Amino acid sequence: MSVTKVVIPAAGLGTRFLPATKAMPKEMLPVVDKPAIQYVVEEAVAVGLTDILMVTGRNKRSLEDHFDRAYELEDLLRAKGDASRLSKVRFSTNLANVHYVRQGDPRGLGHAVACAERHVGRETFAVMLGDDLIDEGDPLLARMIEVQKRYGGSVLALMEVPADQAHLYGCAAVEPAGGPEVVRVTDLVEKPAPGEAPSNLAIIGRYVLAPEIFDALRTTPPGKGGEIQLTDALRTVVTSPGAGPVHAVVFRGRRYDTGDRLDYLKAIVRLAADHPELGEDFTAWLDGFRRDG
Hints:
Layout: E1 5-9, E2 30-31, E3 34-35, H1 36-46, E4 51-56, H2 61-66, H3 71-80, H4 83-93, E5 97-102, H5 109-114, H6 117-120, E6 125-128, E7 132-134, H7 140-151, E8 154-160, E9 170-176, E10 182-190, E11 201-209, H8 212-218, H9 230-239, E12 246-250, E13 255-257, H10 261-273, H11 279-292
Helix pairs in contact: 3-4, 8-9
Enzyme class: transferase
Family: Belongs to the UDPGP type 2 family.
GO molecular function: nucleotidyltransferase activity
């Protein structure tokens, strides 16, 4: 069965960005001229996944409004004859078929994914975290779907991190599988103690999950931080006899972390430099800024 559905957890409070996120969802923070969440949806659509479920929480109304029609704004732009901006406003509305479900209690990423079970059913599906933006020139999700079609089961995205930072991530023990960038996962540890990580391969925010993950999540107790961790449920799948395989793609492309304030600023600079309308002027200004201070 081909992958057709995407789950985007978007219920977090964005406390690391306070006070900016006091009244604005962190997913709506702008990255150049689009909210971060739009980059994620565009990435899904680029590989043909247009059935999208966002798992939201309180104070996420502006996120839903962004992918809805804005009749008054469209009428104003139409009356002004501003076809360019009208097209940009309509673009997010027509991107995909977006659905929403509330995560009533903030009980972790695993719980957020579990909230999608009724919509997903017994299908293989993708999970995309809005904190991780993947450069459109590095088609990670497409490669993950290819690997899932070949091997079945679930597929994770891994990225090498410095050994002294491995404790900040879920980390995987792996063995060779289908080439230098495809590995089979043999164990997983969520935020291991310093020096105890099974490798320096950290899980990043792209998953292609078989529906058996829902069975594992139902029996997964709260883990690190008192939350239901998706990594713990995946470990159950990895280590259970007869469960489907879990493979991973080791990603070495361009990833922009917008979940951290400093990395968020770096992401804006990098994407602004590549922007088709702004890039040349912005890069020239940036060169002058670095030279002259």
